[in-house]
Amino acid sequence: MYRFFRSILFLLSPERAHYLSVALIKGVQRIPFLKKIIHAKADVALLKTSLFGLDFSNPIGLAAGFDKDAQCFESMGKLGFGFVEIGTVTPLPQAGNPKPRLFRLKSDHAIINRMGFNNDGVINVAARLALRDKTSNLIIGGNIGKNKWTPNEKATDDYLKVFNELYEHVDYFAVNVSSPNTENLRALQDKEPLLNLLSALKIRNVELGSPKPILLKIAPDLSNDQLDDIVEIARSLPLDGIIATNTTISRKELTTPSDVVTRMGAGGLSGKPLTARSTEVIRYLHDRLGEAIPIIGVGGIHTKEDALEKLDAGASLIQLYTGFIYEGPALIEDIKQALIARG
Questions:
Q1: pTM confidence score
Q2: 179 is catalytic
Q3: Rounded Cα–Cα distance for residues 201 and 218 (Å)
Q4: 44, 84, 150, 319: least buried by Cβ within 10 Å?
């Protein structure tokens, strides 16, 4: 059934299709007889995963970028996700980059986006999160960033503003310094500015009285030397976890004609072309960090085999985005059944 709806949605521009999809998911869940069809079954105990002091009903999450403004996190939880990461959220609302800014590479099962942290701003997002169902076991992560006009030397102020506003409303934080779509943002992954930023957040976390897990989301394009810096920082703070990985600026080994890709322009590539590299980064980090600092694996998960590969490489949890768009909710259930079969 999903493939039929996908064929219709893919007739629309990717951004319009996204907003229509969200509206449909929320709308269908208000219709009793349809709600029963699309709602996932309750998770069995075998799928429960405890990490960062949090209890996840299953280890499959929705990556940041899908629900930027906390508009549909509860609806996505009812489709079967064990956790949803909202955002990226910035202090002030911003429109993001000019359209078009989202492109499908159908033959590659991939997406290029240069959205540019378009979001409603932290005050509006926090207000929506304040209404979340407190009886739900859905874990919510807050992916935080800076406004595009904020210079990097003042970036910490932006991250702290968002951290403070979301603190009461999310279960963990993901610090996004790895999006390629905000100018110079990735420079914050350099050792000194990254250590300063994360140290400031750690201090504030303690000051607020009930520390939340703080995770760092990194790019797949880092060199081994840069990954070694991440490992050193993760150990020294210590970090609660790492999310590996964000989208890539690489355009290697695509089947989509190069002139078509060139016309799409700059942006982060996600989907199947990222599968191998994200797994490689997960394995590299896990070999050096062991179980001390958990990893959330994300990037190119389109099948249950992809998911198991991420877990075998060292991920403790996984997240979907592009794979969910191409494969639909059935992918969540396929992964769950594979995990149950493994025991």
A1: 0.97
A2: yes
A3: 17
A4: 44
